[in-house]
Specification:
Keywords: Disulfide bond, Endoplasmic reticulum, Glycoprotein, Isomerase, Membrane, Redox-active center, Signal, Transmembrane, Transmembrane helix. The chain is an alpha/beta fold and about 425 residues long. Helix content is about 50%, strand content about 20%. The protein has a 6-stranded mixed sheet with strand order 11-13-12-14-15-16, covered by helices on one side.
């Protein structure tokens, strides 16, 4: 019993030391940061506001990241900055929302676009902090990379203008994916390249080679090809897909306990994405999302799961099937109808749609507030209504009356004779 008690007493200080040490690995930054930092320092920074709920939720994760990077011997420094105090630093990094996660490496700022999870942020930090283009110098390294990454973008060949272009693209898109370089003898023997140098994307158990005449700009091609052919999509990934210029065909399914119909929809879309890749890959991404909250806001309504929708992320538009989606033929007709214009797009980002979406978001938010905190909901509604009522009251109070108008006329024209009222008797 005594030994157990001693063990507990010893474990409490140990936990405190770990917590304190985690906080010690995160530096609070102020407006002097850009002047005092080292030129070669690499910084991972969280910009927050004290009133931001999401910032508070991220705080323990952020300290775990700081502690883990330090324990691994990483050269990445982890910091955070209160934007309400260090307004100059927030302006330098063009912080627009909270929490914002950015990385500073040799005066280049990289914005983290992914989910606010420890794994996602750590992957981003290690990817950006390392070389822009990682060399795969052996068959073993290449195979190891293939096992770790669903999508690999590889430059093959010696130094050339194409390699310079490849490095420039990597500098911009390193926030999204890894970039590699390799010699021809490192690649699997089954890979056939028409010429060298070449840029190759390995994904979905196969590979695709960049052709400037057919594919156009290298950056645009990589932006289109850096996603798997069919995969699980979240709201962050969906947002970044907008840069590819493709439409996104999404199957919405339940988050847990997916029904037989949901599994059938997922299998149907996955099969079409694989079997008809040569036809539709230039125009569509394919995937599935769990839950419907994001799409409910997109279409401004409640959708019933499972649900199939095609999104045009460039203009906030969408396409809906005209009928039931029972067979492969139905899905192909849906895709072809979108491409040939027989299925009309809905939604969009015109002024009317933006206003409608804003009203919908406010209505949904207030509904949730009323359900979870009725008193707060009443307060939020009563404040604007009270202000409108006061404005109307003041306007009515200061509105000139008929007697005021007569007095004004008499004041500014006193010499005008008043009309005498006479009573005329009828004969």
């Amino acid at each position: 019993m005594l030994d157990r008690r001693n063990t507990l007493l010893l474990s409490v200080p140990l936990v405190l030391v770990l917590v304190v040490s985690g906080f010690a690995f995160v530096v609070e930054l102020d407006d002097t940061f850009m002047e005092t930092r080292g030129a070669d320092d690499v910084w991972l920074i969280k910009f927050y506001a004290p009133w931001c709920t999401f910032c508070k939720q991220l705080d323990p994760v952020w300290h775990q990241i700081g502690s883990e990077l330090r324990s691994l011997g990483s050269l990445i420094n982890v910091g955070k900055s209160d934007t309400t105090k260090s307004t100059g630093l927030a302006k330098d990094f063009r912080v627009m929302n909270y929490p914002a996660i950015l990385m500073l490496k040799k005066d280049v700022k990289y914005n983290y676009p992914g989910p606010r999870t420890k794994e996602g942020i750590m992957d981003f930090a290690n990817r950006v902090a390392g070389p822009l283009v990682r060399s795969l110098s052996s068959v073993q390294l290449f195979q190891h990379a293939m096992q770790r990454h669903n999508v690999m973008i590889v430059y093959v060949g010696a130094t050339s203008p194409l390699k310079g272009n490849f490095s420039s693209v990597a500098n911009e898109l390193i926030v999204h994916t890894f970039f590699f370089s390799a010699s021809r003898d490192v690649l699997p023997k089954t890979v056939s390249l028409p010429s060298l140098p070449a840029v190759v994307v390995f994904k979905d158990g196969t590979y695709f080679t960049f052709n400037e005449e057919l594919d156009g700009d290298l950056k645009s091609w990589i932006n289109r090809e850096r996603f798997p052919n069919y995969f699980k999509i979240d709201s962050y990934t969906l947002y970044s897909m907008g840069e590819s210029g493709k439409l996104v065909l999404v199957v919405l399914v339940e988050e847990k306990g997916q029904c037989e119909e949901s599994l059938r929809f997922k299998g149907l879309v996955e099969k079409v994405a694989a079997d008809y890749r040569e036809i539709y890959s230039r125009h569509f991404h394919f995937g599935f999302m769990e839950g419907s909250d994001y799409i409910n806001g997109y279409v401004m309504g409640q959708v019933t799961l499972p649900f199939i929708i095609a999104l045009n992320l460039s203009n906030d538009g969408y396409f809906l099937p005209l009928g039931a989606m029972e067979t492969e033929r139905h899905l192909l007709d849906f895709l072809n109808g979108i491409l040939d214009g027989t299925i009309q797009g809905q939604g969009g980002n015109c002024a009317y749609q933006r206003m409608s979406r804003l009203i919908y978001d406010i209505r949904v938010t207030l509904t949730l507030v009323f359900i979870q905190a009725p008193l707060l909901g009443c307060l939020l509604v009563s404040i604007p209504l009270t202000m409108v009522a006061m404005f109307c009251y003041l306007c009515c109070k200061h509105r000139p009356t008929q007697s005021d108008d007569d007095d004004s006329v008499a004041m500014f024209a006193p010499s005008l004779p008043r009309r005498k009222q006479t009573n005329k008797k009828s004969d």
